[in-house]
Amino acid sequence: MWGRTGTVLSPVPLKRDTTLTRQIRNSFSLHEELLDLAGFCEKHQLKCPADPRKFILRPASHQETGLFYSQVEPERDVEEATVGHLRIDFASGRLHHSWWPHNDDRFNTPEFKAVFQEFVDELRVRGPLQSETAMHRWCYGYPEGEIGQDHVGFVAETENYRFCLRCTTDRSDHCYLYCYDLNQQKLAMDAQASREGMTMEGMS
Fold first, then answer.
1. Would the pTM count as exceeding 0.90?
2. CA distance 156 to 55
């Protein structure tokens, strides 16, 4: 209980700008209040800093587990409008990756490439892809996103795309990022519904 590590939020400066560190002894005590940054700012009537992230990751649900793995049936890949997936590892302390196209790479458009690059860049700056240690920290911090043994899933969505990041705490395993085109997915669903409607009409 004496080895705690955390962040101190204060409505007033705790040290001068020229001071690198400051010893804090008997100045405060820990309590059981659970307060996030927004709640802290509201309590102390401070302006809450804007979230610098453009892409917000959330833990995956068990119903979404299939989105973090390659589909066995080609038809499912078409229905899900899978653009492709990225295989990632941190060998020798550096991020290595390789791209695997899906659906004959026809959804891998210039628009997707631009959004995808921006997404990965942000995860490398302030997300699970900063380092292997950062990825493990995200996994242990969101146990509700567990999608398998040693695997934790995170989902981020834009207007047109869904990104599903499968992280792992197993150093011998890879991390995977699956990408889906939501517009193409809707077109596939509409086409399927139209075919089913024609079939029903023919039966009647």
1. no
2. 6
